[in-house]
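Bumping with the actual sequence this time:
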Amino acid sequence: MNVKIGLVQSRCGSVREENLERSLKGIAEAAGRGAKIVCLQELFLTPYFCQDEDAGRFALAEAVPGPTTERLAAAAREHDCVIIASLFEKRAPGIYHNTAVVIDADGTYLGKYRKMHIPDDPNYHEKFYFTPGDLGYRSWNTRYGKIGVLVCWDQWYPEAARLTALSGAQILFYPTAIGWMEEEKDSQGASQHCAWETVQRGHAVANGCYVAAVNRTGREDALEFWGSSFVSNPFGEVTAKASADREEVLVADCDLGGIEEIRCNWPFFRDRRIETYGDLQKRFLD
């Protein structure tokens, strides 16, 4: 089965409702171009607020499911498409998550994934805001294919991609917010971008699946988000790619029917020596 997927790469302003409307227009455009699964970028409702630590920003969080998932469910029904969206979830006072939701094409809320790997780097102070996820790695049967969702920093961890693929995912979606710091761009920018794209293309090869990463674009305070949203096929080939500095709706074809043949010809799952991997549960092999 062939399915078109859409990635909505955009800028984020300070007005929440405007960001939502911009994303809804992106969903409509993607669906109008034939996309049946549409993914929004990480924390699409707000500017990337983790560049510093401010307890007042916990007020940006909301219940999941909640008011935003209701708006997205209506869009899914209207456009007959699956929607993946990253939200700032308020679970309880003092417990907040970076959470991706999956809504089926009929508007049914299928579930959520809570970001597991939480960074703490200059301008990425996520440990202050987000509790690590506790829902595990999983995938969802949607009207248009079985999909898995991971979020941004998760994309550097092959274990996360593997476990999600082992749950049956045919496409791994990565809502993302990654960019350059001005003082690093000239000396390290190309290398950083190359590493980001390459590791995800490797996940596609190692797991015999498609990978779709959607990143925001534009400058926000100290960060210049590098856009470049892309789709990789199971051979690690980039089949569609957005620009670095423009808002775009990227649409790409995925041949889900061919995944079984690829996994049979390159049987990485079959040949895994799972009895030898116990040390992966250790922090380091001293």
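The tokens above came from a reply further down the thread. The chain has six helices and 17 strands.
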